[in-house]
């Protein structure tokens, strides 16, 4: 059965070209996933098709009204949370997400969790936001794609669909592509089979990806690293792991606190910190794998 995405928005036309390219287009054509885009104004009952109103207590901007959102959710068979009674041994296969700057960070780990569902319902906020009662009554999670403010949740919905869709089995041409990349799982969790060939990369274990090179071997006076050209999988694997650690330390040192690091990784990190003058992490702040 394919995964289903439902998007509730006041700008359905925004998505008309989003799903016409690349992996998204192929996944839809092959029916690995399906997407429904629902115009919130369809669920209004006044001549102006009003979806927003002034906030109680004053303040800038407008707030999306609760009634159209509640009707849109009802049309999708979504009841208030209090009325949903899944069996203890049968967890809910649908989740309602409010996209909001106030939400929990949307990460690769969250995308992986959502990709295991049957249906994902995304509510696109607009203006100053959504009446909080919709969040309280219907939403299972509130997610933010970053520490910045967008004009609305449509871009965030597109990001979420792309990130989740590519983790649905069968969507990527090579299943390993979803494991060997930035923020991917640790080596112990890799599920793809290498067919007896030594792997030339580590699972990232929450780190950033390593640099990539392709032909020509030399470009604009810069040569691709010789280690990538010698065919030694173990040397390539070690080089790539060092580069993952180097890039993460430089660009996202916060990721190191929860990364799955081996003793060898920690030795390399200490060398890189001395080389770059970066501060060391607390030893108890770094998780380790079984290497």
Short description:
The protein has 291 residues and is of the alpha/beta class. It contains seven helices and eleven strands.
Features:
alpha/beta, 291 residues, 2 domains, Trp Operon Repressor, Chain A, Alpha/beta knot, 7 helices, 26% helix
**Percent in helix:** 25-40%
Shape: elongated
Average pLDDT confidence is: 89
* Quaternary structure annotation: single chain
Cα(first) to Cα(last) distance is 37 Å
Tell me the strand order in the biggest sheet. Answer: 2-1-6-5-7
| CATH topology descriptor of the largest domain | Alpha/beta knot
Give the ordered list of helices and strands.
EHEEEHEHEHEHEEHEHE
What is the CATH top level name of the largest domain? Alpha Beta
Q: How many distinct folded domains?
A: 2
Count of separate DSSP helical elements: 7
Low-confidence segments, given as residue ranges, are: none
* CATH homologous superfamily (4th level) name of the largest domain: SPOUT methyltransferase, trefoil knot domain
Q: Characterize the main sheet.
A: 5 strands, parallel
For the record, the CATH architecture of the largest domain stands as 3-Layer(aba) Sandwich
Query: Would you count the extended β strands for me?
Result: 11
Summarize the SSE layout with pairings.
Layout lengths: L2 E7 L12 H8 L3 E7 L12 E2 L9 E2 L1 H10 L18 E12 L2 H7 L4 E6 L7 H7 L2 E4 L9 H12 L52 E2 L2 E2 L9 H19 L8 E2 L1 H14 L10 E2 L3
Parallel strand pairs: 1-2, 1-6, 5-6, 5-7, 10-11
Antiparallel strand pairs: 3-4, 8-9
Q: Can you walk me through this structure?
A:
The protein has two domains: 3-165, SPOUT methyltransferase, trefoil knot domain (Alpha/beta knot), CATH 3.40.1280.10; 184-288, Trp Operon Repressor, Chain A (Orthogonal Bundle). By secondary structure, the protein is α/β, with parallel strands linked by helices. The protein has a five-stranded parallel sheet with strand order 2-1-6-5-7, sandwiched between helices. Strands 3-4 form a two-stranded antiparallel ribbon. It has helices at 22-29, 66-75, 108-114, 132-138, 154-165, 233-251, 263-276, and strands spanning 3-9, 33-39, 52-53, 63-64, 94-105, 119-124, 141-144, 218-219, 222-223, 260-261, 287-288. The mean pLDDT is 89. The longest helix is centred in the last third of the chain and has 19 residues, at 233-251. β5, α3 and β6 (119-124) form a beta-alpha-beta unit.
């Amino acid at each position: 059965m394919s995964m289903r995405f439902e998007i509730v928005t006041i700008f359905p036309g925004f998505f008309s070209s989003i799903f016409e390219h690349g992996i998204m287009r192929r996944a839809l054509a092959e029916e690995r996933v399906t997407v429904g885009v629902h115009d919130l104004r369809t669920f209004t009952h006044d001549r102006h098709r009003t979806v927003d109103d002034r906030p109680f207590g004053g303040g800038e901007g407008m707030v999306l009204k609760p009634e159209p959102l509640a009707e849109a959710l009802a049309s999708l068979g979504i009841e208030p949370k209090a009325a949903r009674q899944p069996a203890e041994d049968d967890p809910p296969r649908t989740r309602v997400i409010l996209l909001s700057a106030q939400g929990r960070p949307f990460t690769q780990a969250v995308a992986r969790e959502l990709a295991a569902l049957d249906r994902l319902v995304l509510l696109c906020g607009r203006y100053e936001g959504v009446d909080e009662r919709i969040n309280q009554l219907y939403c299972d999670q509130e997610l933010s794609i970053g520490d910045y403010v967008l004009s609305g949740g449509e871009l965030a919905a597109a990001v979420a669909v792309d990130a989740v869709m590519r983790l649905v089995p069968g969507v990527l041409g090579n299943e390993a592509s979803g494991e060997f990349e930035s923020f991917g799982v640790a080596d112990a969790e890799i599920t793809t089979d290498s067919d007896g060939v030594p792997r030339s990369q580590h699972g990232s274990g929450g780190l950033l990806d390593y640099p990539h090179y392709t032909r020509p071997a030399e470009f604009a006076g810069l040569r691709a690293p010789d280690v990538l050209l010698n065919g030694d999988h173990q040397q390539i694997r070690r080089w790539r792991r060092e580069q993952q650690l180097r890039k993460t330390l430089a660009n996202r040192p916060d990721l190191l606190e929860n990364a799955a690091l081996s003793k060898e990784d920690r030795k390399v990190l200490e060398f890189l910190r001395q080389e770059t003058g970066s501060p060391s992490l607390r030893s108890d702040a770094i998780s380790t794998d079984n290497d």
